[in-house]
Amino acid sequence: MIKVLQGIRVVEQGTFITGPCAGMILADLGADVIKVESPGEGDPYRNFRNGLYSAHFQAYNRNKRSLALDLKKEDDRAVMRGLVASADVYIQNFRPGAAERMGMDWKALSGINQRLVYCSISGFGQTGPYIHRPSYDSVTQALSGFLGVAIDVDQPRLLGPAMADAITGLYAAMGIMGALVERGRTGIGRHLEISMLEAMMHFAIEPFTGYFALGDVPKSVDRPKLAQAFILRCGDDKLLAIHLSSIEKFWDNLVLAIGAQALAADPRFATRLLRIDNYGALLDALNVIVGSHPREHWLARMANHDLPFAPVNSIPEAVEDDQARHLGMIVPVDKRSEGAELAVRPAFVFDGQRAGSVKAAPLLDEDGGDIRRALTGRPGEWPSAEIATRENRHVYREGTVTVDGR
User: What residue spans define the domains of the chain?
Assistant: First the structure.
């Protein structure tokens, strides 16, 4: 893939998801990201299940280099200062106050490098009554109002993916790139602050706007009703999603595709507004029809009509989906010594070019020797990713890897 951020140098001191996700987005776009971790166990997400290379860690740390530093030691603080002096971006997701205690706050680092774009990620912001509370994904989804419009309040269940974490990382990456564009005009960096609460409230901007405009308290069923979106259970117990929106032809085409002329003649469903008012009854009626045949039968029928529909795929089914395969969504993981052999590629396509692979997430301190040697005698000069010494280079043969003799 075209590396649109090639030449951008990032120091990421992130843990778990928010900071690492922001760093991953920049790395996917071609930035050189050095992930600074604590010696011993590194990012706690490494041992989320066992060992120091969990699948969870791999997900958000590809295309990076790893350097282990003990910032209680002066030699390691000097290494960090050397990195910051020539970096473009610094990312951390510490609790408020932790960066100051470590000497890694905005005031300290901008004093070293006035061009630095410094990104602070937190749960609830840097000030206010909640700043000393720990925050994780589910807590922020709940506090932000997002869960209130995403779950069935009669049968409440948390959503599976860590949405608040990843969405905050995406917002952070966007803010960083905006600050880099501005720096191109001014030559001066910025201090970007973003919290999970702020990101998720903005992400849920539509129900908030509905509340402010209409005075109604949004509920989880509101959006599906207005969008005329349904999840239907087929005869083989597999699920199917359709989304009719506000375009009348989609309703007409659904009627044709599933042979539902009786529903079209039902006065409760004669118009879109009536179908919204009678959403529950329509859902029940559609389930009766699609429950008469397996999902493949309905997919084949719907494919012959102009209709927004899709199977509710499992992850294995999504991997094998025809469109996903056509887009080359699954790519090999290069330079791996363990872990997954395949990954979902970056979503970006520039001038028709997509990423054909990703670089494996680094082992803890995998690049530490190279980075330290590159900085020796050249303080403040960024250690190029191409620099590798004979003593610490990676050796790849026939699908195997050796790193520092391991």
Answer: 9-203+367-402, 222-320
CB atoms within 10 A of CB 139: 18
pTM above 0.90, yes or no: yes
Which CATH number describes the domain made up of 222-320? 3.30.1540.10
CATH tag for 9-203+367-402 (out of 3.20.20.300, 3.40.50.10540, 3.30.930.10, 3.30.360.10): 3.40.50.10540
What string of pLDDT tens digits covers the 406 residues of the chain?
A: 899 999 999 999 999 999 999 999 999 999 999 999 999 999 999 999 889 999 999 999 999 999 999 999 999 999 999 999 999 999 999 999 999 999 999 999 999 999 999 999 999 999 999 999 999 999 999 999 999 999 988 889 998 899 999 999 999 999 999 999 999 999 999 999 999 999 999 999 999 999 999 999 999 989 999 999 999 999 999 999 999 999 999 999 999 999 999 999 999 999 999 999 999 999 999 999 999 999 999 999 999 999 999 999 999 999 999 999 999 999 999 999 999 999 999 999 999 999 999 999 999 999 999 999 998 878 779 999 875 443 444 432 233 333 333 2
Alpha helices for 125-277 (secondary structure H)? 137-143, 163-186, 196-203, 205-214, 222-227, 248-258, 261-265, 272-277
Taking Cα atoms as reference points, which of 239, 281, 245 lies closest to residue 263? 281
